[in-house]
Amino acid sequence: MPRPRSIRLGVILPAAGTILLLYLLYIRSRIVVPDTNIPVREHFNDDEDPTVFEPPMASIRHSVIRGDDAAWTNDENTTWYSVGRHPNRGECWTYEDRFSAYKDPSPVMSAAISDNNNVNKSKRAVLLRMGSNQEWGEQFTLHARALVLEAGYLGKYDIVILTHLEMDDGAKATWMQRVPEELRPLVQTFTSKQVREWLPRSAKFKSIFDQNHLVVQMFMAQNPKYEFVYSVEADARLIGRWDVFLDDIDLEYAYHRKLKAPDQEMPAIPDLVTFESLRRPRDAWPWLEKECVEHFQGIENIRASLGIVWGWSRRMTDEMTRLNEKGINCYFEYFAPSTAYQQNLTTFFYQHPLYCPRTTPSSRNTMKKEQLGKNDPRSVQHEKVAVGCTYYFVNPHSQPFWEQWYHTPAACRPPALIHPVKGNFWN
Ligand SMILES: *[C@@H]1O[C@H](CO)[C@@H](O)[C@H](O)[C@H]1NC(C)=O
Ligand SMILES: *[C@@H]1O[C@H](CO)[C@@H](O)[C@H](O)[C@H]1NC(C)=O
Ligand SMILES: *[C@@H]1O[C@H](CO)[C@@H](O)[C@H](O)[C@H]1NC(C)=O
Hints:
- The structure is a single chain.
- The protein has 427 residues and is of the alpha/beta class.
- The protein contains twelve helices and 16 strands.
- The longest helix has 27 residues, at 4-30.
- Residues 1-14 and 19-46 have low confidence and may be disordered.
- One 2-acetamido-2-deoxy-beta-D-glucopyranose binds next to helix 12.
- InterPro entries: DUF3405.
- Pfam families: DUF3405.
- Keywords: Membrane, Transmembrane, Transmembrane helix.
- The chain crosses the membrane at residues 7-26.
């Protein structure tokens, strides 16, 4: 009698071994080893004064993305997937790569920070927005110095640390002691009362929280030399360099502008730059205000987007002030995009890479091309648009993405605009 059982085992065991071996070889072949670890410390630009600082560089370079959409992060515990648009650079930054250049500023570097806005040639500024709850801990200080030296010194933007402080002069002076000395000359403060007094009488004032746009409008009205500003909330972060990121936005907008349709008018600088795709809010969105919906002639003409980082042209802020004069003042996440939509201004959505611990984003873009503003770029690849995860209104993904990076020296991160990073330790 044959002994089928043992015969079967005798065939199966070696076969299983072969399959396992092939599987392991297959896995290995799918893991693309990073090309090199280049200790890059080349000068960014010979024209720049090399004594100020060596601009940071990512130490790990690789082919941009693995075939399975997993991003290079060298994490022990979490695989981070690129969702939506893939990163456009094969860089992976360790926390050390990103921030070590800013740990011990030399006197000449501190002076470059303090003097950033005295050059007085820039027509563009970045407003770093915060309130009195800002702790100014060590990690936030590194972030603020990076912003000034990269967007300011290298990128030639003015940087204003625009701070909402409801305090008397004594308390304000005490608060200012928190700010590292070299950054203090960049701080400008305001109170709710000042905003209310600046606002045309006809418009209703709710609060800075609800109407964050007023701070930007007031800043533009009081600083006529600027033609464009970015506003950046204090709990947003950037992995990769600010000057590179801001240049990429300009380059991409210029590309879309070349491809505009014959009936479109797109100015040299866009009117509203947004980092989350526009959406038409649902009917029951609690932030909608009756008089605003009426003004924009129905919810189908309302556009909204996350207002953490936005770019504003003077045309944009002036248009909103004109509406204020007519008595219209709406919640900030839809006031600017709806105004741009109604007035045929150009809203440019810049899709930056997003990362998730799964292969799906938090939500999908739902707008169709026909629902964009008349003069908005149409060549954005909408099928690749994703929403959420590392740039979202809540932090279940942004926080671990940032914290695991900090706590694991070998971990690295691809370029990313991150929001929010919460907590006193980080802020
Ligand atoms: C990974 O997970 C283990 C077990 O949960 C934990 O002990 C370890 O600290 C984690 N490592 C990192 C870098 O988060
Ligand atoms: C900057 O320019 C403004 C007007 O454009 C001028 O009033 C001001 O004095 C200038 N500041 C410096 C430091 O040059
Ligand atoms: C915006 O463009 C549309 C379509 O061309 C036009 O009907 C409308 O009058 C324009 N609105 C403004 C405020 O220019």
